[in-house]
Amino acid sequence: MVNQDFLEKVEPYDKWRSLVFSICFLHSCVQERRKFGALGFCIAYEFNNADLEASMLFIDKHMTSCQATNSAYSWNAIQYMVGEVQYGGRITDNLDRELFSAYCTIWLTDSVFQQNYCFN
């Protein structure tokens, strides 16, 4: 799904690549937690690649519109769309929603653009 053409899709490329990595990292953590059943999430959810693709499409459109209008990225909008709409639309348990909100708050922020940002 992610290839060289995809990584060069949105300018500025370095910021786009950082956000693609963040979304992919988030998706891989979600998929990994599913393997642990009730220890991973309180309720089993059917997260799939469509959630990942929809999230990246939103970020693509958001970054492109911000670049065109020379405005700052709205991290609240990105966190809401990914955490509450794309993935969060499947989440029904409050504890699972709180966990996913924490993931989005940590990994979908301006800090991911820093050179030594640590995801753990």
Summarize the model shown.
The chain has 5 helices and no strands.
**CATH topology call:** Helicase, Ruva Protein, domain 3
Report the biggest beta sheet as strand number plus sense, adding barrel if it closes.
none
Structural class: mainly alpha
Note poorly predicted spans: none
Apparent shape: globular
Top CATH class: Mainly Alpha
Number of domains: 1
How far is it from the N-terminal to the C-terminal residue, by CA? Answer: 25 Å
**Strand segment tally:** 0
H and E string: HHHHH
**Beta-strand content estimate:** under 5%
- So, CATH architecture? Orthogonal Bundle
Rg measurement, Å? 14 Å
Chain-averaged pLDDT: 91
CATH superfamily: Region D6 of dynein motor
Percent of residues in helices comes to: 55-70%
Helix run count: 5
Structure explained in plain terms:
The protein has a single domain, classed as Helicase, Ruva Protein, domain 3, CATH 1.10.8.720. Helices cover 61% and strands 0% of the residues. It is built from five helices and no strands. It has helices spanning 4-7, 13-34, 49-69, 75-86, 94-107. Helix 2 (13-34) runs antiparallel to helix 3, helix 3 (49-69) packs antiparallel against helix 4 and helix 4 packs antiparallel against helix 5. The protein is globular and about 45 Å long. It starts with a helix and ends in a 13-residue tail after the last helix.
